[in-house]
C-alpha cells in the first residue's frame, strides 16, 4: 500500500506535548496526524495518505450517519525502556477488523495493510508515544465507514478507512481498583445471527441505556446474558470475563458468535496455561457465577480488554442480591502483571506477540 505524507506545518510544541503526556487521560487529545485510505468497487483501496489531524466535511446524506455501516478497532503502542515503540498482536486486530468488515458488508482491508497503516501513523507521530512509566501508551483507533452520499439501504460504494491515535494515561491511576457489575436482566447485547462478534458502533450504542441504568443504581458496569435463554454469561459492554475457580482452573465464556473475540482474552488463555492453570472455554450460567462466588468455589472474577488489560470484579449484583469480596485476587493480579510486563518489554515475549514499530 502506498501512503503519501503531508506533514502538519507547525507541530505541537515540545512544551505543549510534554504537558499533555504527563496526564493524557483517555480519548481527549489527538496526535498531529491522521491516516486515510479510500475504497470504491472500481479502484479498490487507493489514495493512502497521512495528513494533518483535522475535521472531516461530510454531506448530511453520508450513508454511515443513517444506516451505521461502520466498524472499528482498538490497540495500543507501548514505549519500552530503550525508547523503542511496539504494538501488541496488531495482526490479530487486523484479522478481527476483516471479520467485522465481512459482517457489515464493508470491503476487507488485508490484515497486512492494516498493520502497515498503523505502523505508518505511529511512526509519523512517534513523539506522542509516552514513556511506559505508569502504564501510559498511545491508543490507536482504526475505523472504516460508509462514506457514500446516498440514502438507501445497501452496502456503500464509497468507503473510507482511517487511523487516528491518542495518548492514554494509566487506566488505574490510583492502583488497580475492583469494579462492581450489575447483571442486565432487561436488556441483551447481541442475538445469534446478529452483530455481537463484530466491532461495530451499533453494539456500543445498544449498551448505553443499560450502562446508564447500572450507574444510576451505583454500579460500575453491566454484564449481558445470552439473548435466547437469558441464562448464560456473555460479556460486559467493552470487556470479556474470566472466572478463577478454587482449584486454579480459569473459565471464560465460549465464543458463540454473540461475543467479541477479545485479543486480551485469547492472550490470557495462553498466559494462564503457561502459568500452569487449566483453562476452559465453555458456557457459564449466571447461577453458576452467583452460587460459585457465594460458596467460594469461584475464588476470583476479572474482566479483560485492551483498555485496562485486566480489571478485577469485586462484586456482582442481581435483582435481589449481591456477592463478592470487593477485592482483587492473587491470580487476577499475577496474570495482569505477566501481560503488562510483556507489553512494556519487561518480560521475555515467549509468545512472539510484540511487533516493533520504531
Ligand atoms: C464488547 C467488547 N468485548 C471485549 C473486548 C476486549 O477486546 P480486546 O481484548 O481485543 O480489547 C472489547 C474491547 O475492545 C469490547 O469492546
Keywords:
about 350 residues, alpha+beta, nine-stranded mixed β-sheet, about 25% helix, binds pyridoxal-5'-phosphate
Concise synopsis of the structure shown:
Helices cover 26% and strands 29% of the residues.
* First-residue to last-residue Cα separation: 19 Å
Bound molecules: pyridoxal-5'-phosphate
Helix/sheet category: alpha+beta
**Can you tell me the residue ranges where pLDDT is under 50 for at least 5 consecutive residues?**
none
Q: Helical proportion? A: 25-40%
Q: Tell me the strand percentage band.
A: 25-35%
What's the story with the biggest beta sheet? 9 strands, mixed
Q: Based on DSSP secondary structure assignment, what is the total number of beta strands?
A: 18
Order of helices and strands: EHEEHEEEHHEEEHEEEEHEHEEEHE
The number of helical elements comes to 8
Mean pLDDT: 96
Radius of gyration: 21 Å
Could you explain the architecture of this structure?
This protein has helices at residues 14-22, 64-67, 90-103, 111-124, 201-216, 263-274, 286-295, 330-343, and strands at residues 4-5, 33-40, 44-52, 70-72, 75-79, 85-88, 137-146, 159-168, 179-183, 221-225, 233-236, 240-245, 250-253, 279-282, 298-305, 309-318, 321-323, 354-356. The mean pLDDT is 96. It is of the alpha+beta class. Strands 1, 2, 3, 4, 5, 6, 7, 8 and 18 form a nine-stranded mixed sheet that branches. Strands 9, 10, 11, 12, 13, 14, 15, 16 and 17 form a nine-stranded mixed sheet that branches. Helix 3 crosses helix 4. Helix content is 26%, strand content 29%. The protein contains eight helices and 18 strands. The two termini are 19 Å apart. Pyridoxal-5'-phosphate binds next to helix 6.
Amino acid at each position: 500500500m502506498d501512503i503519501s505524507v503531508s506533514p502538519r506545518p507547525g507541530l505541537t510544541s515540545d512544551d505543549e506535548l510534554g504537558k499533555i503526556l504527563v496526564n493524557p487521560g483517555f480519548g481527549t487529545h489527538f496526535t498531529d496526524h491522521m491516516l486515510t485510505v479510500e475504497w470504491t468497487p472500481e479502484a479498490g483501496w487507493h489514495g493512502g495518505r497521512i495528513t494533518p489531524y483535522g475535521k472531516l466535511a461530510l454531506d448530511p446524506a453520508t450513508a454511515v450517519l443513517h444506516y451505521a455501516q461502520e466498524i472499528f478497532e482498538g490497540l495500543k503502542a507501548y514505549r519500552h525502556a530503550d525508547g523503542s515503540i511496539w504494538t501488541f498482536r496488531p495482526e490479530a486486530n487486523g484479522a478481527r477488523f476483516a471479520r467485522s468488515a465481512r459482517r457489515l458488508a464493508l470491503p476487507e482491508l488485508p490484515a497486512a495493510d492494516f498493520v502497515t497503516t498503523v505502523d505508518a501513523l505511529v511512526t509519523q507521530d512517534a513523539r506522542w508515544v509516552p514513556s511506559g512509566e505508569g502504564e501510559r501508551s498511545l491508543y490507536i483507533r482504526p475505523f472504516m465507514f460508509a462514506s457514500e452520499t446516498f440514502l438507501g439501504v445497501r452496502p456503500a460504494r464509497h468507503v473510507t478507512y482511517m487511523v487516528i491515535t491518542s495518548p492514554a494515561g494509566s487506566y488505574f491511576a490510583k492502583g488497580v481498583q475492583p469494579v462492581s457489575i450489575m447483571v442486565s436482566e432487561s436488556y441483551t447485547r447481541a442475538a445469534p445471527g446478529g452483530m455481537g462478534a463484530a466491532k461495530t458502533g451499533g453494539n456500543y450504542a445498544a449498551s448505553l441505556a443499560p450502562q446508564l441504568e447500572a450507574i444510576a443504581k451505583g454500579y460500575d458496569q453491566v454484564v449481558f446474558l445470552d439473548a435466547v435463554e437469558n441464562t448464560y454469561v456473555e460479556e460486559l459492554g467493552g470487556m470479556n470475563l474470566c472466572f478463577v475457580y478454587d482449584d486454579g482452573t480459569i473459565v471464560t465464556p465460549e465464543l458463540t458468535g454473540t461475543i467479541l473475540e477479545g485479543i486480551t482474552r485469547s492472550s490470557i488463555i495462553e498466559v494462564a496455561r503457561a502459568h500452569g492453570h487449566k483453562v476452559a472455554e465453555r458456557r457459564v450460567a449466571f447461577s453458576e457465577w452467583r452460587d460459585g462466588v457465594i460458596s467460594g468455589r469461584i475464588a476470583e472474577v476479572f474482566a479483560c480488554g485492551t483498555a485496562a488489560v485486566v480489571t478485577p470484579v469485586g462484586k456482582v449484583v442481581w435483582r435481589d442480591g449481591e456477592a463478592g469480596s470487593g477485592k482483587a485476587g492473587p491470580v487476577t493480579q499475577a496474570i495482569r502483571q505477566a501481560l503488562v510486563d510483556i507489553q512494556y518489554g519487561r518480560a521475555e515475549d515467549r509468545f512472539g506477540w510484540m511487533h516493533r514499530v520504531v
